[in-house]
Amino acid sequence: MTTFYWIFWAVAALAFIGVYLSWTAGRLDRLHTRIDAARAALDAQLLRRASVAQELATSGVFDPAASMVLYDAAHHARQAEEDGREVAESELSQALRAVFDDREQLVAVREAPGGQESARELLAAVRRVPMARRFHNDAVRAVRALRRHRKVRWFRLAGHAPFPLAFEMDDEPPAVLAEHG
């Protein structure tokens, strides 16, 4: 009779461990899916910001030098390969700060035909990029924290999923755009 109880408790313990490991693997999978969704949202916001900047650069509102700086940075941000994307997006942020270094540029954009809508789109784009990046990096932190646990490493619960990397870039908006709404 005692052998039966030992076998019963050993099977119950193994079943519990199996369920726990399965739950942890599912959680890890959901977190990886969350990273993918957050990365897609970040990519969409970065593309939107670059598109609006490129549209403004070709609108004729700015002087030729400012237009060229903004267009070049936006073009590089849109065309950047994955390994150079953070640098290209940071350069676009710097170009936006350089072009919108004073209030007069924003006034000039708003006074141009269709400028109110362009200014509104640019304001929305420069505000959403930091939020999207923060959501992505929060998801990356959550996955990294779970993947550091011994049980995840020992039982290889992450499978062949690559170790997630945060997206680090300069996303500080121009002061003129940050204070307007």
TrEMBL record:
The chain crosses the membrane at residues 6-25. The keyword Transmembrane helix applies. SUPFAM superfamilies: LemA-like (SSF140478). It comes from the Bacteria. Keywords: Membrane, Transmembrane, Transmembrane helix. InterPro entries: LemA-like_dom_sf (IPR023353). This is LemA family protein. It comes from Streptomyces tardus.
